Amino acid sequence: MPSTCAQCSLVPNIVPLIGEVKSPSQGSEFDSTSGDVVEIIKQVFQPPRRQDICIDHMIIRRCQKQPDAPAICAWDGDLSYQQLHDASELLGSYLFQLGATPTTFIPIYLEKSKWTAVAMLGVLKAGAAFVLLDPSHPLHRLRQICSDVEATMVVGLSRDKNMADSLGGAKFVALDEEQTWRCQTPCHLPSQSFSSSPAHAVFTSGSTGRPKGVAIDHAAFTIAAHEFIQRTGLGVGSRVFQFASYAFDVSIADHLVTLTAGGCVCIPSEPDRINRLSEAIHKFRANWADLTPSVARLLSPKEVPSLATLVLAGEAMRKQDITDWALHVNLINHYGPAECAIGTSLSSPIEPNAEPGNIGY
């Protein structure tokens, strides 16, 4: 359901309906920003209830419910929900002992890997917030992000230690040097974070080109995740193809929303993601994907017969996109800026004769 900000963006669509009830001759000039309109919108669109729970706690529940189910299926290895829980618990304990707090933002410097989910969940269990760094971005941009969040530690793989060291001198934690953090004596992880605590930050270029950070708290994410799961049908049988770059918040939803729902995150290698997309989707038997329309246009339904749900986001959908996909998958239009957790609006499955401008609510 839309936030207050999203509700206001729907005013232009509701104004014509109000006009049918109140013609210009019956009153003064209509003000679409008036309090009356906002009240009408509030009555039509009830915002979801705030959930007083953290993301990692929701995923822990899922791990306890289905420990042997596949959580991660990646080019560099697979993890069950129990394995994901165990690894992230030890990592979280180690990060906590290094001084992670609810005000700590920990950058994660990784290419596509099974370790990304371990790192995200480990940071959250430590009570801190994470920031995904895209290794393909210029060093000066990554360094600026680390400076903005005042990073005291960076998580990555040992091969990237020299690069990570150049990001500002933060302590480097190598995920693949498991003897370092797995041999630590696990400590009891107190519930440091609250639903109002930041869970992650996303950096966008903005109008100036300088990275601008947006912090998303646990409550905002869990509310949005619940609505997203309910309305897209994401669930235990979902195999979600993780395409989005780590520079975009869709990549975070691909991981954490999927794990909350009990699905499996399918992670291709970077070369396969870029050069062999249809083959990678087929190889992972992925039945769910969130892509930009321009990327979806590189595919055809015949090339990816396993795909059952296709969410298009990040760009405007065209009529041809509907023609190409609506008869073959559950096609969903998704919209939302980085400032809003996961998104602000979501369409119902799109029919072949639908208008591409329908972004739902």
Question: Can you give me a brief rundown of this structure?
Answer:
This protein is an alpha/beta fold and 361 residues long. The protein has two domains: 33 residues, no CATH class; 292 residues, Rossmann fold, CATH 3.40.50.12780. Helices cover 38% and strands 18% of the residues.
Describe the protein's topology.
Layout: H1 4-9, H2 11-21, H3 35-44, H4 55-65, E1 70-74, E2 77-80, H5 81-97, E3 105-109, H6 115-125, E4 129-133, H7 139-148, E5 153-156, H8 161-165, E6 171-174, H9 178-182, E7 198-204, E8 212-217, H10 218-232, E9 239-241, H11 249-261, E10 264-267, H12 270-275, H13 277-283, E11 288-291, H14 293-296, E12 309-313, H15 319-325, E13 330-335, E14 345-346
Parallel strand pairs: 1-10, 3-4, 3-5, 4-7, 5-6, 9-10, 9-11, 11-12, 12-13
Antiparallel strand pairs: 1-2, 7-8, 13-14
